[in-house]
Design a protein that fits this description.
The complex is a heterodimer. In chain A, about 45% of the residues lie in helices and about 15% in strands. Chain A contains nine helices and 13 strands. In chain B, strands 16-17-20-24-23-22-21 form a seven-stranded antiparallel beta sheet. Chain B has a six-stranded antiparallel barrel with strand order 8-9-10-13-12-11. Classes of the chains: A alpha+beta, B alpha+beta.
Chain lengths: ~350, ~425
Amino acid sequence: MEEIENEEGKIYNRREVELPLGYIEIFSRTGKIKYRVPVRQLGLRLGRAYDNDIILDDPYICPHHASFQWLNGSLVAEDLGSVNGIFPEGKKQKAERVQLASGDKLRVGRTVIRFCGADLPVAKTQLEPSALSPVRLFEHPLSLISIYIVMLAYAGLNFHLDTTVKFDGLKFAFGMIGVVAIVIIWSSVWAFVSRLIIHRWNFFIHCGIASLGLIAFSLFELSSSYICFAFGIDGFLPSFGIVGYPVLTALLIYHQLRYVSLASPSQLAKASLGVAVGVVCLFVVISHLEQKNFNYFPRYSVTLKSPKFKLVDSEKTGEFFALSKDFRKRVDHSALETK
Amino acid sequence: MKVLNITIKYLACSLSFLSLIILTSPANAGGPTEDLFRRHKGNVLQVRILDIASNAKAGIGSGFAVSSHGHIITNYHVISELVVHPGRYRAEYLLENGQKGTLQLMDLDVIHDLALLKAEGVAGKFLKLEGKEPVKGEKLFSLGNPFDLGLIIVEGTFNGFLEKSLYKKIHFTGSINPGMSGGPTLNQKGAVVGINVATAGNQVSFLVPAMYAIELLARGKKVNEPPEDFSQIVSRQLLDNQDSYMGPLLREPFSPVSIGGYEMPGELSPFIKCWGDTRKSEGLLYDQVYQTCSTDDDIYLSGSMSSGSIRFRHELFKTEKLGTSRFYNFLESHFKQPNMHLGGDEESVGNFQCKSNFVVHNGLNSKVVFCMRGYKKLGGLYDSFMTATTFSRDNEALHTTLVLSGVSYENAVRFSRAYMEAIAWKK
């Protein structure tokens, strides 16, 4: 234990003199810690009046509402005859005195407070992302610029692949403006939320994440289409989408949340996963409704690529048209629905 | 071909064309026409379909007496609501003298768009059905109630039968109009030679030959208790009919037509007609040759549904300027969009169910999508949709689509298979 000597030469234990016995944490309505007040041997008084140690602007709290005393190694909260009283966490009955162990909560008016003893363990230290982590990549101007350039080049290539007419500069410009506008609009929303929560815009970082997300979505679509063609499994294309798009959405949101909130990566991952599950549910509900609703046109998934990408054998016409009993059952069942 | 059934909502706008109709109708020749009208107007009646809940007119047409027991012939499409929604509609007639009464559906011939009804309170005088074919150029007189404007007579000419039609019809050169559907067309002796059914405008009109009405009457006279639900009768007639034209088509291999080195099904029968063109333009980086083939006519089932047709479309795409990736990208997006639809609604058909795979035929590799849907009330009937693209070559591909409506499951599969087997590369 570290010891210090005062001017008169008396030796004190540093912990006894300087360090508080613990902290009282004041929570906001949203459950975040607004501020902490150190607890020392002398005790504290809480209320709305300005002669208190802890001043709270809660209209349900009296000018002198409660006091905190350090008795026999624990903190005791005492009601000072307030109108609304004090409540131990989870209790609906007022209490005159409440003994607070480290980590215990107390409700005063509409405010929740918590006593944290000096020995209360804290969460494990998070490792800072390394320079090679994608999270850091978004922070380097050079890597950000590279992402923008790749995104624009990719969008241009896609535009080129999608056209079957001679190059038209105006159409090309409009196509590119469209892509850039999507990235900007999406990133502006995130930047605005960033500004509200962590007081930084991070606009260009959000643009970088959105650009990479756009490329990822497009590459996923392309690769799943090629896989389905190669193995002749076009029917699985919607299933690829149902799994792939929510995963990509979760990754995109996870990375954007990292620049919006200071919450831990595990909390962010949980939030992103929640969004992904929501997206999966939405996909499933929509595809179920589409199946149920009457469609004038047949709905089918189909891929067509150059023959060199085909990895499976073709069926003979006789084999293809030897339709399974299950196919007929599906057709007949569909006609029976809503009969 | 435009079917002449008319609903109330069309009446308001049709009145504005009144002057045009009068102008385009042949001038009244006087003597025989006047005489025919006077003698037979009492046998022609207006058929009204009424919504039971609101008692309002849901559709009108014409009809005429064909027996002394009150049997009435009209078009199926005039009274189709009685079949499609039994219990929701009722039928009544209105004679030229203002007499009204109820009509009961006795039998029908959905293939030739005819229905036999029995009119309460109509007995005695009736029109004779003439089974003998008129002579080309013979004067005919069509009676009916156009646009709910009252009974009229229209003079015209017999111009033979439609030669390239799956469903035999008389080509009548005369102006028949909506609301005249189901009315009789008489020869100069006053016998019915045809029943008004459709128009293509400009005095090109079509009649159902009287011989089908003779057959229907003979059959219908034996009916004492008509069924409440005619769906089974309609589906039986449609199934027999599709067998009658699918059977001969499937007996022989399809005679092919050649486009740009490819062979594919063309005018498989006189009743299938093909039209084609080439699409080439300065800015376009590919050439497109297409041919669309279809049966000339189909069978009216309800306002949103017709049946009994064969339609197919071939599109040959060639390119020297698009690279392989761009070309296949284009083909894939073209393939994804079904370019032929079959109509229908939730009440009458289920959703399409599809399968797809690579298929090799005559040395060509294709990606084929085959889809089918079943009819809900007309059991045993199906629509099929097949679309395929060949991808054996890097700078050209044949995209083809086949649509069959109102066929049996087996015929849909057999015809689609024969169709794919007729596609070949011959160069």
